[in-house]
Amino acid sequence: MSNTNNATNQIGLEKADMSEIIAKLNSLLSSYHTFYINVRGYHWNVKGEHFFTLHPKFEELYTALQIQIDEIAERILTLGGTPLHAYSDFAQHTSISEDQNVKDGTTCVKGVVKGLQVLIEEQRQVSALAAESDDQGSADLVDAYVQEQEKLIWMYNAFLG
Q1: Beta-strand runs (E) in 3-159
Q2: 36-50 burial by CB neighbour count: b if 16+ within 10 A, else e?
Q3: How far apart are CA 46 and CA 54, in angstroms?
Q4: Statement: residue 108 has pLDDT above 90
Q5: How far apart are CA 84 and CA 155, in angstroms?
Q6: How far apart are CA 111 and CA 116, in angstroms?
Q7: How confident is the model at residue 2 (pLDDT cuts 50, 70, 90)?
Q8: How far apart are CA 84 and CA 92, in angstroms?
Q9: CB 26 within 8 A of CB 81
Q10: Of 65, 96, 125, 151, which is least packed with CB atoms within 10 Å of its CB?
């Protein structure tokens, strides 16, 4: 398939419509990176009676986040954009705050829930914008993440009681 129309990208979507989606995806990518760093910190530093439960759960979560980060960056590339890749860019565009020196399991889990809630809100915005621009691929990508993350919030909140 040859792209002969300069107004569309390589997958036939209007370039002008994609700039805002690419920007939103880059912000989402930044939030994912910050959340990933937080979850790695929880994994490394959690202490206390729930260590043996939480340590592997946090590893499972950050491993999944690595895959999602890669998929978001590849979607940005597919749309004709350039994914952000510098920590200074992530810090500027993230919606998630750094969580430093957290060791208590309950506090770590609360940080996970809060981070997931922020990601879900951002992804719902991306999905709505993508739907308006007939970008089914971006909408499907983030909608699948939302569905899984909603379940994770329920599970982590069950842990919190």
Answers
A1: none
A2: bbbbbbbbeebeeeb
A3: 8
A4: yes
A5: 31
A6: 9
A7: very low
A8: 11
A9: yes
A10: 151
Q: Give percent above pLDDT 70 in the chain.
A: 95
Residue type, 36: Y
Give the position of tokens 């998929």.
Answer: 71
Largest CA distance in the chain: 62
Return phi, psi of residue 9, to 5°. -90, -170
Whole-number Å distance between alpha carbons of 68 and 49: 30
pLDDT tens digits, one per residue of 33-88: 999 999 999 999 999 999 999 999 999 999 999 999 999 999 999 999 999 999 99
Q: Are 35 and 115 in contact (CB under 8 A)?
A: yes
Q: How many residues does the chain have?
A: 161
Q: Which pair of structure tokens corresponds to residue 123?
A: 């992804």
According to DSSP, the residues that pair with 47 across neighbouring strands are: 104
CA atoms within 13 A on the CB side of 22: 18
Report how far Cα 72 is from the mean position of its chain's Cα atoms.
8
Contact by Cβ (8 Å): 62, 39: yes
